[in-house]
Structures are given as C-alpha cells and as structure tokens.
Amino acid sequence: MAKRIVLALTILTLAAGGAFAQVSIGLGGNFAVSADLVKNSIQEINSTTTTPGGGFYAFFDATYLEVDVGMLFGSTNTVLEGPGAPPAPNASYDGPNVTILTLSLYGKLPISLGSFTLFPMLGIQGDIGLSAKQDDAEVPSDQLADYFNRFWIKLGVGADFNLSEQLYLRPSILYGINFGTKKINEQKGSDVTTFCQGLDIRVALGFRF
Q1: In whole angstroms, what is the distance from residue 87 CA to residue 1 CA?
Q2: What counts of helices (H) and strands (E) characterise the chain?
C-alpha cells in the first residue's frame, strides 16, 4: 500500500508541478546508512542490522515539492548481543548485498539567504527491494529482497548554491525512521520491539527551466 501511495503522489506531482511553480530537474549521488534494532525480551537477544551503501538519484523540483527516484546499493551486517544470542553472547555476521529502488516525495520551504537558498524538508520514501544476494541464504533471493521493502518518514535540510542562472548545486541531509518491513513485522510477537532509523547525505546538480 505504501508503494502505491508514493507512486500516486509522484505522478500527481509531475502532472501538476509545472502549472503552479518554477520547475527544475537534477541528478545526484548519495551515501545512506540504516540501522534496525530488534529487542527480544524473552529470548534476551538484541540484534542491530546496519546497511551502509551508496547510489544515485534523479529529482524533479517544483519549488515547494521535490520528487526523487533512485537506486541504492549496499551490504548488511548484523550484530547479536545478550546472553541468549547464538552462537555466543556477542556475535556478528554479514548479510546479503542488496539493490533497492527508492521513491520519495518531500515538501520543502525555500528561504532565500542572498547567495544561496536554504530549505527544510519533510516527506516520505518507499523502498522496494529488487535483489538480495547471499551465497548461504536459506531463502530464495527474490524472497530475501522482500525484507527490504520499507516505508519511511524523513526530515532534513538542503541548500541550493547557484553556479549560473540555470545550474545549481544541491547538498542535502535527511534523517528518517521507518516502521519495519512486512516480512519482519509478520514475525513479531508481543515480546519483540523494533526501532529502525537511517541517514542520507546527498549532493546533486540541478538545472532550472
């Protein structure tokens, strides 16, 4: 459902954006890292799965709205802690290499500061796991990728630095939380709690029409 909402909002924004605001497009790269903390109070196991990675994205900007479509490539690592953690009280192991499609919609409020424009951002992002490859995985790659289908709420700040009348450089940083994946939530019980968060650092080159 979250993916359908993001897609619908993206289509509506692309259709309506040019009608009420100056529009621009751009292409950039990003570094992203997410951390999923799972606590099991009965088994006395805490697990933290981090997924650092990098990728690229394209954006469409309509002054107060930004729509992003991107690809993210990363690898996962899980650390288990607590007396119930197998095979030892503290253990870590590498997970799959993943490829994720990202679809995002942000509201933004531009604030002109003379030589550049600053804007706070707030929005949503949908992650669609395209592939997850691990040699010793117990589940097929396509099913493993489903563990990376996530819905985020993100906030942050960005800035536009003019390089010319039409070209500008856009750095931005975003912090987000998500509500876990469908696959993970299906396995949760009353004794399990989760907290999932992430950080994106991005730099893009934009072009105004």
Answers
A1: 38
A2: 3, 9
Among 165, 192, 173, 132, which Cα is nearest to 32's? 173
Considering only CA atoms, which of 1, 2, 209, 17 is closest in space to residue 123? 2
Q: Is the pTM of this model over 0.85?
A: no
Q: Is 15 helix (H, G, I), strand (E, B) or coil?
A: helix
Q: Which residue has the tokens 């893009």?
A: 204
Task: Tell me which H or E stretch contains 19.
Answer: helix 2-20
| 34 contact partners, CB below 8 Å, separation of at least 6 | 50, 51, 178, 196, 197, 198, 199
Encode pLDDT of 59-92 as tens digits: 999 989 999 999 999 998 888 877 666 665 567 7
What's domain 2-208's architecture? Beta Barrel (2.40)
CA distance 154 to 72: 16
